[in-house]
Design goal:
heterodimer, A: alpha/beta, Rossmann fold, 7-stranded mixed β-sheet, 12 helices, 18% strand, globular, B: Non-ribosomal Peptide Synthetase Peptidyl Carrier Protein, Chain A
Chain lengths: 290, 85
């Protein structure tokens, strides 16, 4: 927001700064200036190598749909749904009935408008609140996804256990996240300035853990693990494109939030320098079935 | 590959990565003490060296990078191992 302090409209929107990630609370216009048109703030997929960001994000969402095993009419829950790229995609392309959860009122508003515009509002429901507080039907969902959201959860095992309770007996969960490459990498890099800059300076609060911890949380919740996919190169390419977009739209971004282009570029540089050394991007799929 | 040759290659990578083309970086200078060096720059140096020498450095080397001489010793050993197989 350019015309009044961020705190003013945060208070108006019922936002509690510091409780969750202030980054996503920024004016959606900012994100339109470097993300793809669906505003998906997570890696795309580039199987051919030369995909546009928009095409890569569509390929990625088809991949998620396959991992979740959804079909026409499936009930899907997207936890931490951002600006609703996956929610709207599954409702439109797969005719799924999709519930999205976000703690950001402005994101919810954006998604509802978009669903209405796409004529899919009868299949899209958005719950505003924190996942652990939102009341959802147990055993009701065919699929639950956490696309780059669980990093912001303080109690990750509880979130995965809740996902288990919300799934039907044959349901699947998909989780993709940036992870420390190993426990040793976490011990070495967690307190370094670059890590702190990204996790606290950019996102307000986030926590990276090694993928082995997620595997254990899935096991502890009762899930059967089905697959692990390395998305690191895809995220590297995605961030390259986001950086190019920030540079192209630098003046507009600067006008919306002074200093933001430099902060974003620093975040992207730190991230892309660390892949494979400090961090990895993984997708995990698990099933409730035995 | 001679140790001196490896050191020269490392020095060129360090100078290019840190954008200090004419800096006189001695083989025994701790790279972390150079102006403007932070851990992401060290990672970029390591990534460039791994590519250039077609080797994979151990975490302990990556985390503890100190001098060009020390890196050269580790790289010389890895290159020798690779060539022996």
């Amino acid at each position: 927001m350019t015309d009044r302090p961020r705190e003013a409209w945060q208070a108006e929107a019922g936002w509690t700064p510091g409780v969750t990630n202030t980054h996503y609370d920024q004016d959606p216009r900012i994100f339109r200036l470097f993300l793809d048109p669906s505003m998906k703030y997570s890696p795309g997929l580039f199987p051919d190598g030369g995909e546009s960001l928009e095409a890569a994000q569509a390929k990625k969402m088809h991949f998620i749909a396959q991992q979740l095993g959804v079909t026409r009419g499936s009930r899907v829950l997207d936890v931490g749904c951002g600006w609703g790229s996956l929610v709207c995609f599954l409702a439109k392309e797969y005719e799924c009935r999709v519930t999205g959860v976000t703690p950001a009122p402005r994101q919810a508003e954006t998604i509802r408008e978009r669903a209405a515009r796409l004529g899919i509002d009868d299949r899209v429901r958005i719950e505003v609140g924190h996942f652990h507080e939102v009341d959802l039907s147990r055993g009701a969902f065919d699929g639950v996804s956490f696309v780059g959201s669980i990093t912001h959860f303080h109690d990750k095992p509880a979130a995965i256990a809740k996902a288990y309770s919300l799934l039907k007996s044959s349901g699947n969960v998909y989780l993709s996240e940036t992870c420390f490459r190993s426990a040793a990498a976490r011990a070495e890099f967690e307190a370094r300035p670059g890590t702190k800059y990204v996790l606290e300076g950019i996102f307000g609060w986030a926590e990276l853990i090694p993928v082995s911890d997620y595997v254990r949380y899935f096991e502890d919740a009762g899930f059967s693990l089905r697959g692990l996919t390395d998305l690191t190169d895809a995220f590297h390419r995605t961030i390259e494109i986001w950086s190019e977009n920030v540079e192209r739209n630098r003046a507009e971004l600067e006008a919306l939030d002074a200093g933001l282009p430099d902060r974003l570029i620093k975040y992207f540089d730190v991230s892309n320098a660390g892949w494979g050394f400090t961090s990895k991007q993984y997708a995990l799929t698990a099933s409730k079935r035995r | 590959m001679q140790l001196q040759e490896i050191e020269d290659t490392i020095r060129a990578v360090v100078q290019a990565t840190l954008k200090l083309p004419n800096a006189d970086i001695s083989s025994t200078t701790n790279l972390r003490d150079l102006p403007g060096v932070e851990s992401i720059k060290i990672l970029r140096i390591v990534a460039n060296l791994e590519k250039k020498f077609d080797v994979r450095l151990d975490d302990q080397v990556v985390f503890r990078v100190s001098t060009i001489a020390e890196l050269a010793k580790v790289l010389a050993k890895l290159v020798e191992e690779r060539q022996a197989t």
